[in-house]
Design goal:
Layout: H1 2-7, E1 12-16, E2 19-20, H2 28-34, E3 36-39, E4 47-50, H3 52-64, E5 71-75, E6 81-82, H4 84-95, E7 100-103, H5 106-115, H6 120-134, H7 153-161
Parallel strand pairs: 1-5, 2-4, 3-7
Antiparallel strand pairs: 4-6
Length: 164
């Protein structure tokens, strides 16, 4: 979509983000019952995650700034790269419940989406996105003062996940 909008010559700023921390609450019930959350990504693969509040802060900043023109990307990264195993450890610390990250097969991941009503094509698209992330899709931007946003996973767990 960004490329399509840019092809019109319009002034465009695209927010480019890694995985949202807020995808994790989809697994709150499973975490509570099974003490685990699941992904086809290996549990030790470190990746960047960002809180939606940080994305909203950048979006609000850009919406009120009428001094720019042209076409640009605005990367938004969280404060650190974490593995799912590290995230499980933080969840355990915050919630005081033992939680682990477990890797599942691509097929189980895809079937999980279809069981929730996704079409086979959309379920495959979700798997393709996770595979691209595992292979470094979100690793192309370095943290800097312009790309770094402060909400840590520990802070987010304390304020959002633990109450859920």
């Amino acid at each position: 979509m960004d490329d399509l909008m840019r092809s019109t010559g319009a002034h465009v700023r695209a927010l480019t983000t890694p995985s949202f921390i807020h995808n994790l609450p989809r697994q709150v019930a499973v975490i509570r019952v099974r003490g685990a959350f699941f992904s086809p990504i290996p549990p030790d693969r470190r990746m960047s995650f960002v809180a939606t509040r940080d994305i909203a802060a950048v979006a609000a900043e850009l919406l009120v700034d009428d001094t720019w023109s042209g076409q640009d990307d605005r990367p938004i990264l969280g404060p650190e790269d974490l593995s799912f195993r590290q995230m499980a450890s933080i969840i355990t610390e915050v919630s005081r419940l033992p939680v682990e990250a477990q890797q599942i097969s691509d097929e189980v991941y895809r079937e999980g989406f279809m069981n929730r009503g996704y079409s086979p094509e959309m379920a495959q698209g979700m798997l393709d996105m996770v595979t691209a992330k595992e292979n470094g899709l979100d690793a192309g931007v370095a943290r800097s003062a312009k790309t770094y946003w402060p909400t840590s996973f520990t802070q987010w767990c304390t304020e959002v996940l633990e109450p859920a």
